[in-house]
Amino acid sequence: MLSYLFRLLEIIFDFIASCIYFISARLKGIKKHANILLIGPTNSGKTTLAHVLRTKFRRDPDPDYLDRDASGPYGTHVDFGGTRFQFIDTGGFAAPPLSWFFPQADGIVFLVDAAQEAQWYRETNGMLREVLGDKQLIGIPVVIIGNKIDHPNAVSTEELIQLMELDEGRLDVVRRERAIEVVMASVVLNQGLRVLLERLSQHVNESAFHNVAQRRKQETGR
Description:
By secondary structure, this protein is α/β, with parallel strands linked by helices. It is 42% helix and 18% strand. It has helices spanning 2-28, 46-57, 121-133, 157-163, 168-174, 193-220; strands at 33-39, 67-68, 74-80, 83-89, 107-113, 142-147, 180-184. It has a seven-stranded mixed β-sheet with strand order 2-3-4-1-5-6-7, sandwiched between helices. Keywords: Endoplasmic reticulum, ER-Golgi transport, Golgi apparatus, GTP-binding, Hydrolase, Nucleotide-binding, Protein transport, Transport. Its main location: endoplasmic reticulum. One of its GO terms (molecular function) is hydrolase activity.
């Protein structure tokens, strides 16, 4: 009985928090459209995430879960907090090189299989270094998703950060150029995805406001 009551309260508080967040975003003014790249190794959950976002968060579901962005790659769009997020799956057999997608990015979701064996993090970390080290992506926020937390072998947040070699020193360096944080999730169970959308909305719009301010500063010479 108590567990049911706590679950009900959690749902109510989540609804109230979402309403407050939405109203706050409306009042502040927001970026109307944002391209979000889904990046990560094979089997990390990129395509599954695009599918779940479409089926759980879109208000206009259609038979084809893939939308074609004007620039070419397949993905799906989600309206959240007044922003239309176009999620672009960068994987697939015939996908172009990862760097091909970078110029159009407003934000990045980097997926990690939190249940994978430790030796596979070498590939994962190499891909993350490519993203964080590319000059085209300076200032672009990154949300790292520790996926598959429903798996019995899934690591904790602290263990994932350690395996990803994201100690406090390195995070401090990365945060000088962009917002970055870790969100643990289970994509197939729709756990953690609302938090993901809230973090993206916050960081993408902060990045957009910062870029506008920087351009105005350059134009005025102040």
